[in-house]
């Protein structure tokens, strides 16, 4: 996870939730997002 930029992490999280991927995978992404103190609702970072 450390190799992912904040932008890539947030994009991965949003795509994983859109595609209804495994909940454990989404939870892993979300844990890293919280660890970095990022905001998942801020879509202005994406694209």
* Largest sheet report: none
Order of helices and strands: HH
- Remind me, CATH topology? Helix Hairpins
> How much of the sequence is in beta strands?
under 5%
Overall morphology: globular
Indicate the mean pLDDT. 89
Helix content: 55-70%
What is the CATH-assigned architecture?
A: Orthogonal Bundle
CATH class: Mainly Alpha
Radius of gyration using CA atoms only: 10 Å
Strand tally is 0
Q: Segments where pLDDT lies below 50 for 5+ residues?
A: none
> SS-based structural class?
mainly alpha
Tally of alpha and pi helices: 2
- How many domains in all? 1
Protein name: Sporulation histidine kinase inhibitor Sda
Pfam family, one: Sda
Q: Could you explain the architecture of this structure?
A:
This protein has 47 residues and is an all-alpha fold. The protein has a single domain, classed as Helix Hairpins (Orthogonal Bundle). It contains 2 helices and no strands. This is Sporulation histidine kinase inhibitor Sda. It holds the Pfam family Sda.
Which short descriptors sum up this protein?
Helix Hairpins, mainly alpha, 47 residues, Sda, 2 helices, Sporulation histidine kinase inhibitor Sda, Sda_sf
Describe what is shown at a glance.
This protein has 47 residues and is mainly α. It is 55% helix and 0% strand.
């Amino acid at each position: 996870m450390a190799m992912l930029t904040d932008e890539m992490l947030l994009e991965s999280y949003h795509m994983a939730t859109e595609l209804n991927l495994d909940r454990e995978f989404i939870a892993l992404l979300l844990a890293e997002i919280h660890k970095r103190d990022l905001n998942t609702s801020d879509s202005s970072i994406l694209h």
